Amino acid sequence: MNSLAERLSAIDAAIADAARRADRDPAEITRIVVTKFHPASLVRELYGLGVREVGENRQQELSAKTEELADLEELRWHFIGQAQTNKAGAIRRAAQAVHSVDRARLADALDRAAVDDRPLDVLLQINLTDDPGRGGVAPADLERLAEHVLALPTLRLRGVMAVAPLDEDPAAAFARVHESAQRLLAVAPGADWISAGMTADFAEAIAAGATHLRIGSAITGPRPAQG
Ligand SMILES: *Cc1c(COP(=O)(O)O)cnc(C)c1O
Prior knowledge:
Elements: H1 4-21, E1 30-34, H2 40-48, E2 53-56, H3 59-68, E3 76-79, H4 88-94, E4 97-101, H5 104-112, E5 120-125, H6 142-150, E6 155-161, H7 170-187, E7 193-195, H8 202-207, E8 212-215, H9 217-220
Helix pairs in contact: 3-4, 4-5, 6-7
Residues 34, 36, 57, 80-81, 163, 198-200, 214-218 line the site of pyridoxal-5'-phosphate (PLP).
């Protein structure tokens, strides 16, 4: 299991297995490869292997890589990290989807930063911990934030995103995400994406209805030291 191609196909096989065990069609699950801390050359290699959806969690790195890889026309960039409001413009210019919208001011800034009439796909990140520093909207405030985003003309509300806390059974955490997703659907019919599941817990996320997995190290290998 040493080459990138082998790791990618092993993960795709594991995703298909988990989907079948959950009685789901693997085709309804999008695998996003998280490439943070890895060089742009790795993204180019992944593109050569057919990868079209990639994720980054830091604006500067996202902007640098999208610039360097502008020739890879079918690549879709997902921003999955905590976003500073003053970086909203740069994020919007680089990404096609932002998974980490967790407050009205950030949504407003992303909306104002529209450069053409292409809508931006956004997901509402839910905080599954009691620590407000972890990013994400408190579950109780989900509907209010959804109503706010729905009123912004250039954002397309797609669904919810969450990271399972380290100190909780992922299946229990993802059951709560599924509940939030149902609540969102009640106010935003069609916003049916559930972005959940990483290297350590994607099978549990699939069982709980995840539509978008964010998988890094199992595919890319260990991340180089953080800069
Ligand atoms: C890094 C990261 C991932 C991928 O993590 P792995 O454990 O390497 O699969 C997924 N989601 C977010 C928000 C991340 O920051």
